[in-house]
Amino acid sequence: MKPVAAVAERMHFIDGQFVDSVRQFPKTSPVDGGIVAMVHEAGRAQVDAAVRAGRAALRGAWGRSTVTARAALLHRIADGIERRFDDFLAAEVADTGKPVALARRLDIPRGAANFRIFADILRAAPMDSHFLDTADGRGALNYAYRKPLGVVGIISPWNLPLLLLTWKVAPALACGNAVVVKPSEETPSTATLLAEVMRDVGVPPGVFNLVHGFGPDSAGEFITTHPDVDGITFTGESATGSAIMKAVAPTVKPVSFELGGKNPALVFADADFDGAVAGVAQSVFENCGQVCLCTERVYVERPIFDRFVTALKAKAEALQLGLPQEVGTTMGPLISRGHRDKVLSYFALARAEGATVVTGGRVPSFGDARDQGAWIEPTIWTGLSEQARCVKEEVFGPVCHVAPFDTEDEAIALANDTRYGLAAAVWTRDISRGHRVAQAMGCGLAWVNCWFLRDLRTPFGGARLSGIGREGGMHSLNFYSEPTNVCVKL
Ligand code: NAD
Fold it and tell me: CA–CA separation, 486 vs 264, rounded Å?
């Protein structure tokens, strides 16, 4: 992997040019607290310039671009990411501290794949066409076609920075929109490299605009409240989604929200025991527990409960908290000291709420530069009441609570007793039960005997506090375009 330049500079990209700001803030490494980048913070005027550039691009040649041309452009963007794979890898790892092996397997390949899949989906997308009978017997042809939504604001989080950003940029460009993108203040780097790729592969000026900054009273809010932004697509915390809904209400913008989760895993006694332990461990601890789809509540059928907890503890204790580039590192730090404070507050709360700490629960001590980072031990609790806040609220760290159940109905009721509704995983060898329980889950996405596996053409999104709308495949095209009807009397 290439090293990143000592302190990189992360600028905005507006109307095809990199531009700076007087105000800048440091981005620190979660590995050792060192400064990895100076990030320019966009003011209202720069966000306004980005929106105007997007509007101008829509009035120009981009607004008349063909599906074939846009699909080809999306493939060129994917090629551009793949050509600079090592740069993206180094930047993502520097910002997040995640293991290189994980970013190499997941984040960067999916960044490129998102463009390829939406290029192909766009080309294959059908639209409605109906022949309408009329009294004169000659009939009328009704057909629908897609117009772009317009200038789309894309606001993304820090946990899977390139993956989640491109998950929205790709379908937005496929549908012919212009975008104003704001990555998380914690992860400005791969978005900036993406802007370089956009420039280098010939994306017209104004089509892809990038602004850096924070949420409230900063670039995030300036995008959501801008009267000329036509839609907002957001991934992040449920509370932020709620704030954005209020912000967009006066201008009635459509929103697509992918928000938090408190996802359950249900492990039945007939499950492949080793497969279930490995799968649940991955779903709890992957990316240091910082994936919206991560499991935070594990329900295990009573006959295998003790054995399961012992085996999951062994998996947690076998995780290697190491430097990202070290071979064998399987868990990195949390994203920041600030986020670690939040996770630690739940660790303290769990004890106060009566949890048994099966393993973990502390800040590890390394005796080296990592002690200045945001590291935390993988943690397992048992013994909490189902009403405990630690069982109800999203922690977003490498932690789960494990509780026993006796019947299938009880397991379903426990899993669904949440205000979130993003994902669930069911572990059983009984194929009928697998389907039955998966369909009974009150969430947008249920896995049987796997986790995080998904065909990108399928719907993705959550219910209740976990989001509004669905993206993925045609669902994304439906959000990023205005289906428009033409009726022709024959
Ligand atoms: P966050 O809500 O704090 O921030 C996300 C983005 O919103 C950042 O770019 C931030 O600057 C911006 N923002 C914050 N306040 C804003 C405001 N008032 N107006 C406009 N923009 C604002 O989330 P995070 O901490 O970066 O990410 C973690 C959260 O994201 C977790 O809750 C996780 O579950 C959720 N998440 C959900 C999904 C999903 O697909 N459902 C995927 C990944 C992460």
Answer: 46
Give the tokens for residue 250: 């006066």
Q: What is the mean pLDDT of residues 389-393?
A: 98
pLDDT digits (tens, 9 = 90+) for 61-80: 999 999 999 999 999 999 99
Q: How far is CA 203 from the centre of its chain?
A: 24
Task: Name the catalytic one among 258, 286, 296, 301.
Answer: 258
Chain center to CA of 68: 28
Atom 1 (ligand 1) nearest CA: 236
pTM of the predicted model, to two decimals? Answer: 0.97
Closest CA to 235 of 486, 479, 472, 468: 468
Mutate to test the pocket of ligand 1, among 237, 263, 458, 460 (most ligand atoms within 8 A of CB): 237
The identity of residue 483, as a single letter, is: P
> Domains in the chain and their CATH numbers?
8-259+465-489 (3.40.605.10), 263-455 (3.40.309.10)
Token pair, residue 140, equals: 């009328």
Whether residue 376 contacts residue 344, with contact meaning beta carbons closer than 8 Å, is answered with yes
Bridge partners (DSSP) listed for residue 401: 297, 381
Burial of residue 318, with CB atoms counted within 10 A of its CB: 0-12 exposed, 13-18 middle, 19 or more buried: exposed
Active-site residue 258, yes or no? yes
CB-based contacts of 157, cutoff 8 Å, min separation 6: 164, 184, 235, 236, 237
Residue 304, CA distances (Å) to 269, 289, 355, 380, 433 in order: 6, 24, 20, 17, 18
Distance from Cα 235 to the centre of ligand 1, integer Å: 5
Strands of 8-10's sheet in order across: 8-10, 35-40, 24-28
Is the per-residue pLDDT at 6 higher than 90? no
Give the residues across from 382 on adjacent strands: 356, 402
Confidence class for position 7, pLDDT limits 50, 70, 90: confident
Name the percent of the chain lying above pLDDT 90: 98
Decide if 179 contacts 195 (C-beta within 8 A).
no
C-alpha dihedral, 153 to 158 to 163 to 169, nearest 10°: 10
User: What is the atom index within ligand 1 of the atom nearest the CA of 238?
Assistant: 32
Token pair listed for 404: 């026993």
Which of these is catalytic: 292, 294, 390, 443?
Answer: 292
Q: What digits encode the pLDDT tens for the residues 395-411?
A: 999 999 999 999 999 99
Query: What average pLDDT does the segment 289-304 reach?
Result: 98
CA 364 to chain centre: 27
pLDDT digits (tens, 9 = 90+) for 185-210: 999 999 999 999 999 999 999 999 99
The strand order across the sheet containing 129-132 reads 129-132, 140-148, 481-489
